[in-house]
Specification:
359 residues, alpha/beta, Rossmann fold, 15 strands, 13 helices, binds uridine-5'-diphosphate-4-deoxy-4-fluoro-alpha-D-galactose, three-stranded mixed β-sheet, eight-stranded mixed β-sheet, binds nicotinamide-adenine-dinucleotide
Length: 359
């Protein structure tokens, strides 16, 4: 199948492109590299030994997007492109609403025009807000607490409306819990710009000596050790969930919503301990105030995805920490240089070898 992947150079997108290529699909990536680097795409090519087409374009560019649909026989879209920093979304809500909501509207309009009605959408466990109970099932009440979360919730509702208006659509909405880890090769992984907001990227930078110490946000939650509990999921397991969701929408119309999580919660202190064991170093930390907006615990009931998609996670917390650490140790060579050169290349670029590119 020929699959358009928006945001395919990003953290979850790049791991999903690997699995799409490994399972015999043709991939076309569209990304504006606002939060990623084309280097990840070359590394996908190295990992899989496969070529694919890349468009350096924003999904807000309707004309450019239409050209992609005209020039390629696209059968389905996996839509990762979006901005994801909660704090930034509070400071710049319009930027988030325009990119995440308008971007999706333009994408769906173009899909409708070119009769491509199979879509997998990246949503988030953040749409549950403060959950009414644990573990969290898909039918729980929804309640976003910040502009980022609201952008996901609004898009979910838009997609429901779209299907109600045209029953030919097949849409899978995937609510991710906390993706961490990296590809086992150490070639691709999460590459946040600046000081990371999320726990694992912060811990890896402390372990590598790039940051001094971790601040644990709150030690007085009603959890096993007082620190926040989350459902950490290996990014490769998450990527596999997209392959299963894609298979599902090939044969079933409708809007299908799935939690993608492991079903187990780990506290911040448990994650620190597991990471220390993996890297053989001590992670210095202090326990500070709670972070505004954080819930005490959040983990999935993943049974719907298991029964309907035949998907469940395979990788445990040790593997997640080990792969995150390997990525931290191997990752960063060539990144900046490639980004500058890539901006000047023809569009689309057929991703073959980095050597051609650098000549
Ligand atoms: P990421 O920032 O690494 O990847 C997103 C990609 O989209 C980046 O490559 C970015 O350059 C691209 N992009 C952004 N706006 C674009 C636009 N207008 N046009 C084209 N490309 C654009 O983020 P990620 O962690 O891989 O997340 C992927 C998706 O999953 C996002 O929609 C995010 O909101 C969602 N999600 C992520 C998490 C998480 O913890 N990582 C959790 C839940 C949901
Ligand atoms: N934490 C710290 N110190 C830090 C960073 C995080 O103690 O420096 C704690 C948090 O308080 C929380 C846990 O580590 O208890 C995980 O925090 P993250 O920031 O890594 O993840 P969140 O659960 O807050 O949010 C993430 C994404 C959201 C997404 C959500 C659910 O950032 O976008 O998972 O998928 F919506």
């Amino acid at each position: 199948m020929s699959v358009l992947v928006t945001g395919g150079a990003g953290y979850i997108g790049s791991h999903t492109v690997v699995e799409l290529l490994n399972t015999g699909n043709d991939v076309i990536v569209v990304d504006n590299f606002s939060n990623s680097n084309p280097e990840s795409l070359f590394r996908i090519s190295e990992i899989t030994g496969k070529d694919f087409k890349v468009y350096n374009l924003s999904i807000l560019d309707r004309e450019g997007l239409e050209k992609i649909f005209l020039d390629n026989n696209i059968q389905a879209v996996i839509h990762f492109a979006g901005l994801k920093a909660v704090g930034e979304s509070v400071e710049q809500p319009l930027k988030y609403y325009i990119n995440n909501i308008s971007g999706t509207l333009i994408l769906c309009e173009v899909m409708q025009k070119y009769e491509v009605k199979k879509l997998v959408f990246s949503s988030s466990a953040t749409v549950y807000g403060l959950p009414k109970a644990l573990p969290i099932s898909e039918d729980f009440p929804l309640n976003a607490t910040n502009p980022y979360g609201r952008s996901k919730l609004i898009v979910e509702e838009i997609l429901e409306d779209l299907f109600n208006s045209d029953k030919e659509w097949s849409i899978s909405i995937l609510r991710y819990f906390n993706p961490i880890g990296a590809h086992e090769s150490g070639k691709i992984g999460e590459d946040p710009i600046g000081v990371p907001n999320n726990l694992l990227p912060f811990i890896t930078k402390v372990a590598a000596g790039e940051l001094k110490e971790l601040k644990v946000f709150g030690g007085d939650y009603p959890t096993k050790d007082g620190t926040g509990v989350r459902d950490y999921i290996h990014v490769v397991d998450l990527a596999m969930g997209h392959i299963k969701a894609l298979e599902k929408i090939l044969f079933t119309k409708g809007v299908h919503i799935y939690n993608l999580g492991t079903g187990s919660g780990y506290s911040v202190l448990q994650i620190i301990a597991s990471f220390e064991k993996t890297c053989g170093k001590t992670i210095p930390y202090t326990i500070g105030e709670r972070r505004p907006g954080d819930v005490s615990a959040c983990y999935a009931n993943p049974l719907k995805a298991k029964s309907e998609l035949n998907w469940s996670t395979m990788r445990g917390i040790e593997e997640m920490c080990a792969d995150s650490w390997r990525w931290q140790l191997n990752s960063k060579k060539d990144y900046k240089k490639i980004k500058t050169i890539f901006a000047e290349m023809e569009n689309p670029y057929l991703l073959k070898s980095k050597r051609d590119f650098l000549l």
